[in-house]
Amino acid sequence: MNTRKNMLFCPVTMACEVLQPRWTIQILAEMWWGSTRFNEIRRGIPGISPTLLTKRLKELQAHGLIERVENSATGMIEYLRTAAAVELEPVIQALGNWAYRNTNTMNGICDADAKGFVWNLRRSIDVSELPARRVAIQISFPEQETGEKNFWIVCKPGAPVDICYLDPGHNVDLFITAELAAMISVYFGHTSLSTEIDGGRIILLGQASLARSIDRWLIVSSYGEGILAEMHSSGV
């Protein structure tokens, strides 16, 4: 009896055939969060090699989950999700919620990649809560290795938040010096910004109004938001 052929009648097994290869779900999640270009997707998934990313994108295209679109005028290539991939959004969100509740996410903080974290952090900045001008923020992780210590976040009205790995030369409005673990802990709602600031693990220097309003323009992860909402509703 061909066990494999019989198992494929199970819809869960059929889904795994498409989604199980390593990095596939992370790629779809990165595209869900807005990345459409090859380098954007790779920056959001630091552990994947260019060769493997190319392979996975081709596989997703073959499965009808993404389409490769080339601008004939500029030659720019974008990868766009199909309706079938968009339908997976609640599944990916549910996986994240499950992991947040049932795995020790704090264990992974010690091995977190600073570049990957800051790349994702850019999505948590609400530009509408910032002054209606260019705002430059420097975030530093002193304990990290060279190349992972300093990052610059540049925000402009009506433009995507930009992350720079080299000093762009702008006047910095706010300096954030922090332990990487402390920033990630705040981002995922394991602790509060005020707690980490009071403990000296996050230090804010610069424009006072930006420092005071950081809890308005720096938004925690949606996974953390769900837990914090439950804590508040239960009086914790």
What is the strand and helix layout of this fold?
Elements: H1 3-7, H2 11-19, H3 24-32, H4 38-44, H5 50-62, E1 66-70, E2 77-81, H6 83-86, H7 89-102, H8 114-121, E3 135-140, E4 150-155, E5 162-164, E6 174-178, H9 180-187, H10 193-198, E7 202-206, H11 208-212, H12 214-217, H13 222-233
Parallel strand pairs: 3-6
Antiparallel strand pairs: 1-2, 3-4, 4-5, 6-7
Explain how this protein is built.
Residues 10-107 form the HTH hxlR-type domain. This is Transcriptional regulator, HxlR family. InterPro entries: HTH_HxlR (IPR002577), WH-like_DNA-bd_sf (IPR036388), WH_DNA-bd_sf (IPR036390). One of its GO terms (molecular function) is DNA binding. This protein folds into two domains: 3-102, Arc Repressor Mutant, subunit A, CATH 1.10.10; 107-233, SCP2 sterol-binding domain (Nonspecific Lipid-transfer Protein, Chain A, 2-Layer Sandwich). Helix content is 44%, strand content 15%. It contains 13 helices and seven strands. It has helices at residues 3-7, 11-19, 24-32, 38-44, 50-62, 83-86, 89-102, 114-121, 180-187, 193-198, 208-212, 214-217, 222-233, and strands spanning 66-70, 77-81, 135-140, 150-155, 162-164, 174-178, 202-206. The chain has a five-stranded mixed sheet with strand order 5-4-3-6-7. Strands 1-2 form a two-stranded antiparallel ribbon. A hairpin with a 6-residue loop joins strand 1 (66-70) and strand 2 (77-81). The protein is globular and about 55 Å long. It starts with a helix and ends with a helix.
